[in-house]
Amino acid sequence: MNIEDLVGHIGERLGLQCLSGRLGFDRLLTSPDVSRPGLCLTGYTHKFLSHRIQIFGETEITMLSEMNPGKRNKALSNVFSFPVICSIVAKGLEVPSELLDASVKAGAALFRSPRDTTPLINDLTAFLNEVFAPREVLHGTLVDVFGEGVLCVGRSAIGKSEAVLGLVERGHRLIADDTVSVRRNGDTLLGSGDPVIGYHMELRGLGFVNVPELFGVGAVKERQQLDLVVRLVDADRMGEMDRSGLETLTTEILGLSVPLVEIPVLPGRNLTVLLEVAAMLNIRRKNTGSTSSEQLNQTLLEKLQQRRGPDYPP
Amino acid sequence: MKTRTLTVPNKLGIHARPAALIVRKASEYRSEVFISNGVDEVNAKSIMGVMTLAAAGGTKISISTDGPDEDSALEGVCAVIDTGFGEEML
Question: A306 to chain B: nearest residue by CA?
């Protein structure tokens, strides 16, 4: 992302007014963080982070205005002797002419925003964190089932879209079919669709279906946290699967571990209902800290313990 | 029809995990496989059935198999039980 993209995306939201023409608009952003250049203005240039967007708040601008012109130029040259990527003056403050001159001379863009410094920094870093977040495109269908983000995966033509179509019909919400873009935000994963494909689903024999057009706007959702991966597997894999329900599987996405459930596909199995139950079980597990299988087994183990009776050594 | 009687060798008895191992093995065969604790007889291909037996460690159980591969089914299922499911033995 370069400065031009930045302005295009959030220039309006932050009320960015460009004071330096389109100077330095092709410079590439390399960090989601911002920098306050106050210390650098005082002459402490060690570890100055010039590759970050420089935010001139009231502190910096007041300090500059209290200096005599000579000192002011010296202070600014401390900053702009580095390859500053661009600068923003916050709070709609009066921009000292020396700041504009120094910025133009360095070929870096200078903006002014009416926003207060802290909210400006918060919004800017929130946006940049999104831009710089690790992301991955996954093959699958993402649907919100009772608030749980369920990513349905499996080999091509196994019936992911059909299963999810059933969920949509039951009132759950589609986020993306076939191609899901997943972004990591701290300890959570956020999934969204492709802007071109939008909320279309491909159903063999019917072609492309525009989901909100057919089912209403309530049938879709723009983005969703990913809570569970359900993998549809061929029935011949069933023999090797755990039946006790005690084995919990996980899969890794962008370095985070996500609960995984494998559902074998067989004629007569209602995948839609099974997906819905998988989501409900995931909610239950999070609420109670254990699964139904674990609780049932606990009951059984207690009964087995009683049955062994006094004849057995402890 | 083949039958063999044996003792549940592990300390915890047939809880969910051993039950799953028995069911998985029994399901490999075409023959019908049953387990009995002397009171109830259940289908060894049904995990819920096997759990219902609540066969504690040291309990006598009998395995019956009936079908085209009843010999190997009996051997296979008994072998799973005799190994103690990889758990602590009595």
Answer: B56
Name every chain B residue with its beta carbon within 8 A of the beta carbon of A246.
Answer: 16-17, 20
Task: Please state, in angstroms and rounded to a whole number, the distance separating the CA atoms of residues A98 and A37.
Answer: 15
C-alpha pair distances (Å), A76 with each of A46, A70, A135, B3: 15, 10, 38, 94
Residue A177, burial from CB neighbour count under 10 angstroms (0-12, 13-18, 19+): buried
Residuewise pLDDT in 10s, chain A (314 residues): 899 999 999 999 999 999 998 899 999 999 999 999 999 999 999 999 999 999 999 999 999 999 999 999 999 998 999 999 999 999 999 999 999 999 999 999 999 999 999 999 999 999 998 889 899 999 999 999 999 999 999 998 898 999 999 999 999 999 999 999 999 988 999 999 988 899 999 898 999 999 999 999 999 999 999 999 999 999 887 777 888 888 889 999 999 999 999 999 988 899 999 999 999 999 999 999 888 899 999 999 999 888 876 555 44
Paired tokens of A187: 């300890």
DSSP H stretches of helix in A20-170: 38-41, 58-66, 69-80, 97-105, 117-132, 160-169
Angle made by CA atoms A255, A194, A223, in degrees to the nearest 5:
65
User: How far away is chain A from the Cα of B27, in angstroms, using its nearest Cα?
Assistant: 8
Find tokens 């570890």 and name the residue: A47
Partners of residue A300 in chain B, C-beta under 8 Å? 15-16, 51, 54
CATH placement of domain A135-297: 3.40.50.300
| CATH at B45 | 3.30.1340.10
Q: Are B39 and B52 within 8 A, CB to CB? A: no
CATH topology of domain A3-132: 3.40.1390
Q: Is the CB of A304 less than 8 angstroms away from the CB of B54?
A: yes
Residues from chain B contacting residue A311 (CB–CB below 8 Å): 58
Quote the number of domains for chain B.
1
